[in-house]
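quick one: nicotinamide-adenine-dinucleotide bound model?
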Amino acid sequence: MDAKIVVLAGDGIGPEVTGEARKVLEAAARRFGHTFTFDGQMMGGRAIDELGTSLPEATVDACRQADAILLGAVGGPKWDNPNAPDRPERGLLALRKELSLFANIRPVKLHPQLIAASTLKEEVLQGVDLVVIRELTGGVYFGPRQEAGEAAFEAYDTMLYTRPEIERVVRLAADTAMARSKKLASVDKANVLASSRLWRRVATEVLADYPGLQVEHVLVDAMAMHLIRRPASFDVIVAENLFGDILTDEASMLAGSMGMLPSASLGELRNSRGLPLGLYEPIHGSAPDIAGKSIANPFGTILSAAMLLRHSLGLEQEAAAVEAAVDSVLNEGVRTPDIAHTGQEVVGTQVMGDLVVQALAY
Ligand code: NAD
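yep, here:
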């Protein structure tokens, strides 16, 4: 099969981790007889520096024409000035909106080899295998806001949701849950927020169409606690944008490190194969504290590449092979520093990528 993949390496560790994921995609193409064409495009801080905008038109055009998009991360202290006319994160939010990527799917799976890397106890972690579906193009990140410069006395953001926005993401979550263990937790803050009361009303209506589904509505503050108290009791969790963002960073510790978690952002657009035109990225940011040191964990991005193969290219066998290659490298006991404990062999980003490529070749 021929497929066109746009790579948005971004800032900080973005180029390091996408470089390894690309190597793994190339290895998968070699093993299974496909031709993947990679098209590197600019977005984020480097795009501001070199092209004067965080989201160049050429990038949006290339993404629209691609079969799938692989992203590292954007941002960093260099571009943190709150008064700057453009910011790296604006480019990413605008791209999600442009491509109507309304659902961010974040699987949180414990690799048993990494139990020791987590800050949580083994008995809490046993059996963790859940998926968080985060609404991605609505809520407080996109609602009306006011921020009137440094002398401002007040500022506000607005958490705005419409019925259709809630309905489509809850339906996607319910379909996902029906294909797994038929359990869905819908997260909101309906005891305080009006947008959350709408969320719960619409979710309740939508979920009435799924009589076989076991549903619980959980307040976000309680969910933050349950996630580290009884994580294995959850299967699919659906949450609005901000709540999903925060809960998945917390959930990353169930998998041992931010560097382990992949994600897929899907929407209504279809690619040349009639499959979702998705954007695939690790859940972590640009990690400026470790950028350039070649110690970033590339697994989150490599596992995002596996999701890309599965969801946007329909290559299930290839996706499973990449996931198996990651597992086999973990079985060898090799670790990047974020998931290592005493006595284990610690390697850098590129060596880890090479090991996955080798494991994939067999
Ligand atoms: P971060 O996720 O970049 O880093 C948090 C911590 O996790 C850091 O200590 C970092 O070293 C560590 N970490 C992250 N990824 C790692 C990996 N692959 N391997 C090993 N350790 C890893 O979050 P932050 O420091 O709050 O944000 C840094 C910048 O990233 C900010 O500018 C933020 O806006 C941006 N950001 C971008 C995205 C995105 O592009 N999707 C997402 C989140 C944050």
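Residues 13, 17, 73-76, 89, 92, 258-259, 281, 284-290, 296-297, 300, 338 surround nicotinamide-adenine-dinucleotide (CB under 6 Å).
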